[in-house]
């Protein structure tokens, strides 16, 4: 029998059914989730005596040995499914490969799959769990800033299909999410910067105290991996912990009443009105954090034009993006792109713009009554303002590289960098600290310089800008994660 609340009422021509399903899940902040001295994760699997873990190749190359030693220490049999990462690999074949591993493993009803990786991995593996027997449990261990701050909050899981992002998916909550920020010690600064945008998003429209902390410690947060690298001060680590906890808490409070996105006025959609176009229009796609930053900066200019934020607040927002090295503009952002983005989002948002803008910093207003002339005037002014900022408002390491897109396997250069990162990481989740400075290029980066060819695709990356990507990466539209 189900303990869910439900009713069946007889009507004139049939029946009316109402049912309410309880959704409950937990978050645990735990630095050193794979430290054998921390039994919390292992305790989730004691009942079954075994674990099926899904992770990406690059995370496994750095942390695989630690993960295996952790479960061996706790007498749990471990099988690891290793997959590619990136938008190219966020597909039905990847989804099916995970399903096949679940079948081979013989997943028992309610036995949770362990998913370790960034937001792309948790999306695909989460969707596989949602589809397998219509509802299979999973536990998340995110390893990137976006995974920890943004993707961990949502219960959305999906894969790309055809030329559309996240076209096939479900709403499927994990049993538990473990938030371990020590993973940021081996995350490249480009990816830390990429995730920093998500914190600006939530704080600008919903949490002034967090915005103040980001404004105070911006550069140090990025440089120290949110206080997790060697040499980071206690002050910066305490600030980072406060930012992360309050940012996640605020997003949960906003999202929990609307887990299935029935309501379309969403505060956390700040920066997601025109960003799908920004993300995909350039020949080499922009990283998600940079795309939403362009949207947020432009939206701030629009809000300032309407006197919803003061000139000082407007400049404060733009300055924070600039200091973080995030994009506020792109040379391809013009009135045509603005018009196309507006038309696309009106379809997604049931005929209304619902553009979230700050009013003032720390709170939010949704704009629906904006005509094309006003949008274009705001864009012209925004372009003029950008001339006052470094690189005319364009960001640092703003473009995806091979590891973002999944277009190449790790070649010799990448493998060497990963091996170096793994050596420097040592027992990252244990008692021994990392020494010798920051760890470069974990999760598949090699100082932004990757040379080689894979499946006929040029894998050359210079300063983080991938060249020669093909096979439809620019075809993804309609639906970056909000």
Structural features, described:
With 482 residues, this protein is α/β, with parallel strands linked by helices. Helices cover 40% and strands 15% of the residues. The protein is built from 15 helices and 16 strands. It has helices at residues 40-43, 57-73, 92-105, 119-131, 145-151, 189-206, 208-223, 234-255, 275-280, 288-305, 311-323, 335-348, 372-386, 402-405, 412-425, and strands at residues 5-10, 15-20, 26-29, 50-56, 77-83, 113-117, 138-142, 156-161, 164-171, 176-179, 355-358, 364-367, 453-454, 457-458, 461-462, 465-466. The strands form six sheets. It has a six-stranded parallel β-sheet with strand order 3-10-7-6-4-5, sandwiched between helices. Strands 1-2 form a two-stranded antiparallel sheet. Helix 3 packs across helix 4, helix 5 packs parallel to helix 6 and helix 6 (189-206) packs antiparallel against helix 7 (208-223). Residues 407-419 and 425-482 have low confidence and may be disordered.
